[in-house]
Amino acid sequence: MSCLRKPGQLPRQGLPFPEFREGCVVPPGCPVLARPVPAGVPLRADAHAGARLSLDDYLVESNETSFLARVVGDSMTGFGIRDGDLLVVDRAAVPADRDIVVAAVDGAFAVKQLRLIPEGVLLRSGNGAHADILVGTGQELSVWGVVRWAIHRIQDRPRSQTTGVVPPA
After folding, report:
1. Residue 160 annotated as catalytic
2. Where in the chain is the domain with CATH 2.10.109.10?
3. Which of 39-53, 64-78, 101-115 has the lowest mean pLDDT?
4. Model pTM?
5. What pLDDT does residue 61 have?
6. Residue 55: what pLDDT?
7. Catalytic residue among 6, 62, 112, 142
8. Rounded to whole angstroms, how far apart are CA atoms 105 and 134?
């Protein structure tokens, strides 16, 4: 996403953009395969890359009302959100019961599932090792936005700093 990198740098820190000859136009985004990749029965790999896809366009509904937040901790693993994930949060979305939200309770941030219960507002953890937060009448609650996406790596194996290739195990 363009908001994750410094101007003139690739997302991997410190690597400059490649040099292109003058007048060369590089389309934004990443190439997308012309057809979906099956997660079941394999299909022939004869499809080539089709159009390009910008993650900004795909993940962010509005640049003016969206922000990114990095997750610290494991209290939301039951909802598929892990330590280190990058969340795409929409401030314009109206929070509803069972939405995953970024909220501040008495000035302390948390990502939790919003539950509207007869006793009030419950911020529910996605991990039994972490307590839910029942927001009391004397507490201040501010919902900063609804989480639309959680982005995380599939494997956390180290990569070679020079080649980017995963070394054999």
Report:
1. no
2. 63-154
3. 39-53
4. 0.67
5. 83
6. 79
7. 112
8. 10
Instruction: Locate 87 and state its tokens.
Output: 């969340």
SS3 88: strand
CATH number of 63-154: 2.10.109.10
The residue written with tokens 């995953």 in the block is 100
- List, for residues 3-38, the tens digit of each pLDDT value: 333 343 333 444 444 444 454 445 566 666 666 667
Nearest to 132, CA basis, from 110, 99, 102: 110
H or E element, residue 27? none
Six token digits for residue 126: 């996605």
User: How far apart are alpha carbons 146 and 148 in whole angstroms?
Assistant: 6
Looking at 2, 75, 142, 160, which residue is catalytic?
75
SS3 of 148, please? strand
Annotation says 112 is catalytic: yes
